[in-house]
Design goal:
Length: 534
């Protein structure tokens, strides 16, 4: 990656012939991010209306550059900045009036002796992004690796390249360059609804010495019969008795609903651009059986039954956070039985996506739903197959299960600096006034709205009958006033004649609270008078 302005005048030797070049300037703005070098060169030369040719396209193939041109620069300086770190020569053909890019030079293929240097980083972290930036300044012989233990770059290259390499490292290894920390809060809500229904007629044929016929009626069939646990009702609907036999039909009607909700709220801190994995679940024992020499050995292993969320957050320049998400669900869907050993059937679901969310915003990830209906049926052969009449000789039990998993993800950049206002660390222009016709007090801080690197998440309101000069051991009157607000009304009851003092503090998304002044003049205060109504 090449950022314009980092390399000018920092020891990168221009790979240019001595022929006089035209003095033309490249005008801003010009902004390319990880763009093919061929496209960037085309844009540069088109902007200055100069002809050029790429004599060795293989050299610039698959080369990517990033350019941010914020001020007018000489074309020659721009070419040195873009092509110099990649060791790509260029020249100006005065006779033809055009620029030649990637021109083969005599001895260009000749390799020099390389040296190895270990360069420790003080402020920056040796991440893949830093390695990628340093690679852009290496020659074809150069390599760069990282030593995580010492947070160092291990660079091998020809000696003449190190001046440019060190200048790049100097520009990125600066105080305040430490990688951002991103806090990711996740709420997992899994709802399981299981419904079992039963509608069957049980037929019993027994011998009896007497005979009669009795019909219990529809009231007995449809009304509330004797309860038998968890909503199961049994009703003897019809009975016929002869001198020899008794046939009894018993109707079973039942519906069982089980609902389970599992909530987990993992909270983790992760470095910007680093992958984090959240796992919520359990390990299920699985039995295995082996036979050796006639001896049966039963052992068991553990199978993960869990929800896994893999997340990689990346802070962006526009203040949003890019999130690569991969939720994964592993659960047991049933068992297969073999020789008294049960082997679990595993159900696996996963989604992979990338999205962008406002810093501190919350988004909902759903769709990981499983909806399954199974029906078990038992019947008397032949009799159970007869239309309508067969209902008296069969048993049917449908089972419906619905599992819905919802994830609420809230990422925000951790800010270790509390909010502050325009001129002071505290809100210094707080106004208060008693509302007409009541003892309510309106607070207004619209003339001194605080700011913070992560924005304002909420405001806290403090009130006392004495001037407030410290927040130590003090609880706020209200701690959840919206961060978008610039005023608030205190509606709590107050004593007539008392004077009430107020301070308002801002809180960012990292729960860093704005300071207050020890000088009571920054308190807003109001003396409560008897309410008057006009």
């Amino acid at each position: 990656m090449v950022i314009l302005g980092l390399f000018l005048g920092f020891g990168i030797k221009p790979l240019v012939s001595e022929a006089a070049t035209p003095e033309v300037y490249v005008e801003p703005p010009m902004d390319f991010v990880e763009t093919d070098l061929k496209i960037v060169l085309g844009a540069i030369f088109n902007s200055v209306k100069q002809q050029y040719t790429i004599e060795n396209p293989a050299i610039i193939e698959n080369q990517k550059v990033t350019i941010q041109l914020m001020e007018k620069k000489l074309l020659t300086d721009v070419l040195d900045t873009v092509l110099g770190p990649k060791n790509i020569p260029w020249s100006f053909d005065e006779r033809m009036g055009l620029f030649r890019i990637a021109k083969s030079e005599k001895g260009a293929g000749k390799k020099g002796k390389t040296v190895v240097k270990i360069i420790p980083l003080t402020y920056a972290t040796a991440t893949p992004d830093i390695v990628k930036l340093v690679k852009s300044a290496l020659s074809e012989q150069g390599t760069v690796n990282t030593d995580i233990g010492t947070n160092s770059l291990v660079i091998s290259d020809v000696p003449e390249m190190f001046d440019g390499i060190m200048e790049i490292i100097k520009q990125v290894d600066i105080e305040g360059r430490r990688e951002k920390l991103i806090q990711v809060k996740v709420k997992l809500i899994e709802t399981t609804e299981s419904v079992n229904k039963q509608c069957s007629v049980n037929t019993v044929w027994t011998h009896t010495p007497s005979g009669n016929f009795q019909f219990y009626g529809l009231t007995a069939l449809l009304g509330p019969g004797p309860a038998s646990g968890n909503g199961i009702y049994t009703t003897k609907a019809l009975q016929y008795t002869s001198n020899l036999d008794t046939i009894t039909w018993t109707v079973f009607l039942s519906k069982t609903v089980d609902s389970v909700e599992m909530v987990a709220e993992p909270d983790l801190m992760v470095e910007d651009g680093v992958q984090a994995v959240i796992t919520v679940g359990k390990k299920e024992p699985v039995l295995t059986q082996t036979v050796s020499g006639g001896v049966i050995t039963v052992s068991f292993t553990y199978q993960d039954v869990n929800v896994i969320l893999t997340v990689t957050p990346q802070a962006r320049r526009d203040g949003t956070i890019a999130l690569e998400l991969e939720p994964e669900i592993n659960e047991i869907a049933g068992y297969v039985y073999s020789e008294q050993i049960s082997v679990p059937k595993l159900d696996h679901r996963n989604v992979r996506t990338k999205l962008y969310v406002k810093n501190g915003g919350t988004f909902r990830l759903g769709g990981l739903t499983k909806d399954r209906t199974t029906t078990s049926e038992s019947r008397i052969p032949i009799l159970g197959d007869i239309p309508l009449l067969g209902l008296f000789f069969k048993y049917t039990q449908p089972h419906h299960e619905k599992i819905d998993l919802v994830m609420l993800v809230n990422p925000h950049i951790v800010d270790f600096t509390p909010p502050r206002s325009k001129d002071t660390p505290w809100i210094g222009k707080l106004e208060s006034i008693q509302n007409e016709g009541s003892t309510d007090v309106t607070l207004d801080w619209s003339r001194d709205v605080p700011w913070g690197a992560n924005g304002i998440f909420a405001y806290r309101i403090y009130r006392d009958t004495e001037p407030i000069t410290s927040l130590e051991d003090r609880e706020p009157l209200r701690s959840d006033v919206s961060g978008d607000a610039t005023s608030w009304v205190d509606t709590e009851k107050k004593k007539i004649g008392n004077t009430y003092y107020y301070v308002v503090t801002a809180v960012n998304q990292s729960d860093m609270e704005q300071a207050i002044s020890s000088d009571p003049k920054y308190n807003a205060f109001v003396e409560i008078h008897e309410p008057t109504v006009r």
